[in-house]
Amino acid sequence: MRNYIALIHKDADSDFGVSFPDFPGVVTAGRDLDEARRMAEEALALHVEGLLEDGDAIPEPASLDAVMENQDNRDGVAILVSLKTEGKKAVRINITLPEDMLASIDAFAEANGFTRSGFLARAAKHEMESAHSGNGRKRALAV
User: Fold this and answer.
1) Rounded CA gap, 58 and 124, in Å?
2) In degrees rounded to 5, what are phi and psi of residue 105?
3) DSSP 17-85
């Protein structure tokens, strides 16, 4: 299991933001520190799953010294986030979506630091968890 450094940032009147120096563009946030840490684990896992699915290399974790050499990183508080997806095999699938929906998905994913695959996996997980909450009642999905 690899551990990556995440930086927690907090401005007045904002949530706790989290970024990953080893994965530029991967960001998340939480209302409190516990939620920020959970969201950081999820964001890292989903991003790495997308990289693996796309056949991209996963970078080795940088040392704390290397991260803190960058002046831009010094305003954050460093935490370790464990990568828990190692050993999970990514499976390539083929799906069909309306062209405008795919464009919207890609734009949203890019703007929020996800790959297409990472975003779709996160959206699916969210929907499945939502469907199972509320005493096991199922909910219909509108597409």
Assistant:
1) 23
2) -60, -45
3) EEE-TTSTT-EEEESSHHHHHHHHHHHHHHHHHHHHHTTPPPPPPPPHHHHHHSGGGGGSEEEEEE---
In angstroms, the CA 81 to CA 67 distance is 14
Name the residue among 67, 74, 61 with its Cα closest to residue 3: 61
Tokens 């997806």, residue? 85
Is the alpha carbon torsion for 27, 33, 37, 42 positive or negative? Answer: negative
Rounded to two decimals, what is the model's pTM? 0.60
Percent of the chain with pLDDT over 90: 46
Distance between CA atoms of residues 30 and 17, nearest Å: 7
AA identity, residue 19 = S
**All domains in the chain, ordered by first residue:** 3-132 (3.30.160.250)
> Phi first, then psi: what are they for 19, rounded to 5°?
-130, 165
From first CA to last CA, the distance across the chain in angstroms is: 37
**pLDDT > 80? residue 53:** no
Whether the Cβ atoms of residue 51 and residue 115 lie closer than 8 Å to each other = yes
Cα Rg of the chain (Å, integer): 17
